[in-house]
Structure formats: C-alpha cells, structure tokens
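Aim 2 progress update. The chain analyzed this quarter is reproduced below.
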Amino acid sequence: MARPGISGLAAALLYGTVSIAITFFNKAVLSVYHFGMPNLLTLIQMLFSLAFLVLAKRYRLIEYPDFDPALLKPMAPLAISFFLMVTTGLAALEFLNVPMFGALRRLTTLITMLSEMMLQGKPFVPRIALPIMVMVIGAIVAGATDLTFSFVGYFLVFLNCIFTATYLVFINRLSKQTGLSTFGLLFYNNIMCVPLVAVTVLATGELPEMVTFPHWARFDFLVCFVASSSMAILLNYTIFLCTAVTSALTTSVTGQVKTIVTTVVGLFIFGDVQITLSNVSGLSLGILGSIWYSAIKYQEQAQRTASSASKASEMMSPATTPKPIDHTGDGVLKQR
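Predicted structure tokens:
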C-alpha cells in the first residue's frame, strides 16, 4: 500500500525527480569514468536497497511482514522482470547518449498500454493513444537520424522497454493480490534478485575487473558511485509508490515526462551527442507527445477530483425530498 495521504501528483513528481538524478549518476559512472561493469553496479544497488529495508524495519522506521517462503512463488514474475529491467537499462545506457536513451524508452508507454489492454481488459481510448503514438514516431525519427547509432544499445533499450512495461503491470497486480505494502514488495523483490545478479556477475567475469578498476581513489568518482548505488532504493520505492497511488500507465508516462529534462540537459552535459536538425526534431516530437499526454491525464484527474467533490457535497447537503416514515407501527408508511 502507498503511504497514506500522498496525492497522485506528489507521487509522480517524486518519482520523476529521483529518476532524473539517478539517470545522470548512472551515466556518469558507466560512461564518464568507464565503469564497464553494469551487472556489478546493479548488484551493489540491490545490496544497498536490501540493507536499508532490513535496518529500517529493525529500527521501526518502516513496516512490512516477516519473510514468508510461501510468497516466493507468486513474487517470482515481479523479481525476474525487475532483474531484466535493471540489467538491460544499465547496459543500454553504457552504449547510448542520454537523449537517445530517453527517446527510445518512450516505447515503454505504448507497450504498457497494450499490456494493460490485453492482461487487464482496459479499453482502447483514441485520445490517449494519439499522444502515445506521437511519442513513438518521435523516437523512430530520432533513432533513424542518430549519428551515434549503436545496434547493441538499441537492442538493449528495446528489451528494457518490454521488461519495464512487464514490471509495471506486475507491480499493480501483485500489490493487490498479496496485500503487501510498498516496502514488503521491495523486500521480496530485492531478496530474490540478489542471487540472480550475483550469478550474472560471476558469469560475466566482472568481479576480477572490479579489483583492477583504476578510479577507486578518485573522490569525484566515489561521489557518483555512492549516489548511484544509494539512490536505487529511493527510485524503487517511488516507482512502487507512484504505481500504487495511480496506475502502471501513469507511472510509465511520468517516466516519459521526466525525459524532457534529461533530454535537454543530456544534449550538452556529457559531450557525446552529435546534434542534427532531424535528430533534434525527433527528440522534440517525442517531448511534445509527452506534454500532450500529460495534459490529458491532468484533465482526467481534475475531472475526477471535481466529480468526487460534487458527490461529497451532495451527500452532506440537507435532504430535499420527503422521507417515508412509519408512524403507525403496522408497517404502513406515511409521508412526512
């Protein structure tokens, strides 16, 4: 369950802010300092997250049920999708610049929408589908004119979109099925993923590379590395929180909206973008699609809020019609 009292807008803003920060920290660690061990970084992030959850529960800062082996089976799809989402995302970021990474990840919204239609029976809504298609077209245009094209990076980010959409749908479903709180879901998610990532690190030979990595003594690298590792738990929490308070699709769209900032800043901050008119046009089209869709979701939320307030007002207002009451005691109703 989400933290009581938080609004959908606040949850979305929190997720967007954290997501922007960790994207740049991850990019700096992997590309600026050439820490070519994405699986090892994922493992360290998960260990940070698990340690935080255990210690926070011990000192009663958070609450979630004790470990129950019976929950491992139903939680397996969520853990596997999370493992695949994180590993493919970090690996793709190593090969792609931030603007293209963000543009291509807009495909997640389309995949999430289709998944919710197929798995949850949600209807097709043209006014929602149109801005999503604009995002997708923008991603295609930007990708087709990307002078820094990397087949490996594009393939990884496409897989990442699929796994992210799957992950978001499973969060929404399992939070209702298991009754676990946000922190409970996070606990099982990390405790099941750590062995998977550890095996991957050993299989890819990243552990010996860690020993010989040359930048461990650099303070600036350590700042980025610790920030990247420690913010993972906050990102996980805000994803769970946003999805629980709103929906999987809204969380996905929030992820697209935050790319407005990452796209603009990413064009200049790392110096790995070759700017062309066609490429910028594609990126801009994707941003416009994100803004359009966000405006639609905002209008829908405002309408629901107004409708709820109107119903509450009607319930509190004095009755305007006579109520039938029984004055006779024999079951015959008389009008007041």
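The radius of gyration is 24 Å. Residues 215 and 221 are 7 Å apart (CA to CA). These observations will guide the mutagenesis experiments scheduled for the next reporting period.
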